Amino acid sequence: MRQICCAALLLLCATGTIAQKNSYLFIWVGDDAKAGSDFLAVLDANPESPHYGRAVASVAVPGTSGTPHHTELEMPAGGFLLANAFGSGRSLLFDLREPVRPSLASSFGELDGYMHPHTYVRLPNGHVLATFQYRGGHGPKAEGGGLVEVTPRGELVRSSSA
Hints:
Oligomer: single chain
Strand order of the largest sheet: 1-2-3-4
Strand content: over 45%
């Protein structure tokens, strides 16, 4: 049975209050047994909807579980959401511009020697500043992590040791 491993993000796709017609809850989940794929589930979060609380869509990530960890803390204005699969050392970029038709836009892992992307902050120029936990490996003798700036699609701009 799939177990919810990770983060949920309430998205208000229309401006205003929680009771908007286009309110969705995105849940980044995985298989506790690590045998199945991770996936992003989309739940109807409009209390006035006849489908309130039900899954209305989902998108699976190729491969077995990467251990979903968390997503960006706020939904970016452009509708593309980064999610962390920490166990695999990968970040996934989901296209949620049409919440009932989510898709996986791209993914990235190691960049400029930095491994295991973790937390993301959107910058005013549209780029993303990401923390990476390790450099050159993740054993006891590995270097510390760093900050990596990437384009909205996860392409390296620059990096710096933390």
